Amino acid sequence: MTHRPPAGREVFAGGGQEAGTSRHETEPAGDPETGEGEMETTLRGIGVSHGVVIGEVRHMGTAELEPPTRQTTRDEVPHERRRARQAVEAVAADLTARGNLAGGEAQAVLEAQAMMARDPELIADVERRIAVGSTAERAVYDALAAYRALLAGAGDYLAGRVADLDDVRNRIVARLLGVPMPGVPNSDRPYVLVARDLAPADTALLDPSLVLGFVTEEGGPTSHSAILARSLGVPAVVALRGAVELAEGTVVAVDGSTGVVTVDPDPEQREEMLRIAEERRAALASATGPGATSDGHKVPLLANIGGPADVAAAVEAGAEGVGLFRTEFLFLDSGGKAPSEKKQVEAYRQVLEAFPEGRVVVRVLDAGADKPLEFLTPAEEPNPALGVRGLRTLLGHPEVLRTQLRALARAAEGLPVYLEVMAPMVSDRADARAFADACRDAGLRAKFGVMVEVPSAALRARSVLQEVEFLSLGTNDLAQYTFAADRQVGALARYQDPWQPALLDLVAMAAEAAGAEGKSCGVCGEAAADPLLACVLVGLGVTSLSMGAKAIPYVRAELSRRTMAQCERAASAARASDGGEQARAAAQSVLSGE
Ligand code: PEP
Ligand code: MG
Q1: Catalytic residue among 50, 59, 224, 521
Q2: DSSP state string for 363-392
Q3: Annotated binding site for Mg(2+), which residues?
Q4: Is residue 24 flagged as an active site residue?
């Protein structure tokens, strides 16, 4: 099933935010002469990074390279062994170098891939295969296939790492075969990158001036690829069935807000897309200053950061502070042990100094599940996402929590910053009390709060709020636990749609409880980065929104066009719906006055 591009397409692009996007009717579009090429003109995936682009499809070079089998002679063994070792080391070093270049969250992901390549057991397996007559490339291919099967069968959580492992294998095998590395296509014209799934090694180095946007067949809204796309600021649609069938060179219009990909848009559709893009650009340019609705209801817009390296982008986007400082990256980079108190003080101080008058919400270490730390996370848990993670890990290692809280207290000393500290994965009042006690014991002068990521915390938010001063909704995990759907599994991406009314109900419960207690309730999950949904969240009573820096201008612009009453009406319409897509359409229709 392919779709042929008519010749001579121009490529044009327009960045911007979601607003009043029209949805085109779905029609078949086969080639009448050959009968070939039945493909819908409108495909729907999940929009995970805002903006609209129209451009030609270029596929990622991710084809699996299967080296031929050949029995080597005994004399060749040392040579093959050397080739294998050199290739593994070169690929690992390249991944590390890409990580250093990319910085931020991408670096941790690429480092993890470099570690996969250097895994001593894997290298031993490769050498065993070479010793019995495999070529270096075949030995790497077979050893990684065995490793892959183990990973894929080890539960959904580890299965999520298979794409990263495949990328490592493709890179080593390509190097040994002397063929180009899989990855971003060579093109001097801008294009829409299409792939089954994007490996972090490639997304981290995408050139936004050439890559207009990307579309993947797999992945979900909280997958690595989605997070990296947002940090690059290119529109992206994931979990789009049929993406890999799009023929090279086909023109597609990608709306990274609605998740709609229009194949071969006709002149009217193109005009409509450009009009939307223009409207969004104008709205972006005209909205400045602190976040607020058009009738002056203030909603602080804060940044999610992974460390000091992300601060510049947050300041540039006009963030009014940090709403989520994910401190685990500091621990992931720390060579298998907790970073020293001194190292932590330095990192925290750099962030706090960047927002002298602003608000900085630091989340204490969130280890376990999708962020395992060898020295803290139990090795054999049947369900890591339901196991010892987040605050549960810290309560089992009080010395780690104590050191982190002490480091935060020292980092804030003498600064006028408005420090808030929160715990991840809090389930009930007892958890909240244990965290608040630990903060007090460490002599921390800050506001203490908790993340609402587990439905029980939302259901009993008033009780939780007896112990702490604020709530922050982690909608990524809250969706995972509400729908019992692992956030790392692409096939379950539908459940990660933050528009799901059940999730909105829980947000409303938490926000109402905070309102009744006179306390604040922000959102720091990916939901806050969707401009339309941001309006709905505000309508539900959420008091601040925290997101990747790139999304802030889009959210600010959208919010500045709506009154509080409109946001409330959109929120009610969304909650009255039966599914995520209907909720979005209902809110859209209220906000565009239909
Ligand atoms: C969340 O779960 O929504 C959240 C913000 O935390 P993380 O994505 O780091 O788990
Ligand atoms: Mg979370």
Answers
A1: 224
A2: EP---BTTB--TTTS-S--S-GGGSS-THH
A3: 453, 477
A4: no
CATH superfamily for domain 287-562: Phosphoenolpyruvate-binding domains (3.20.20.60)
DSSP 320: S
**Considering every ligand atom, which ligand is closest to the CA of 325?**
1
Is pLDDT at 19 greater than 50 in this prediction?
A: no
The Cα–Cα gap between 45 and 261 comes to 8
Probe target for ligand 1 pocket from 48, 451, 503, with the most ligand atoms within 8 Å of CB: 451
pLDDT digits (tens, 9 = 90+) for 125-156: 999 999 999 999 999 999 998 888 877 766 55
DSSP for 414-455 reads T---EEEEEESS--SHHHHHHHHHHHHHTT--SEEEEEE-SH
Q: Considering only CA atoms, which of 547, 508, 544 is closest in space to residue 527?
A: 547
Cβ neighbours, 10 Å, residue 55:
24
Evaluate whether 501 touches 508 at the Cβ level (below 8 Å). Answer: no
Ligand 1 centroid vs 484 CA: distance in angstroms?
16
What is the tens place of the pLDDT at every residue in 521-570?
Answer: 999 998 998 889 999 999 999 999 999 888 898 899 999 999 999 999 99
Q: Which CATH number fits domain 74-177: 2.60.40.10, 3.40.640.10, 1.10.274.10, 3.40.50.720?
A: 1.10.274.10
pTM here?
A: 0.67
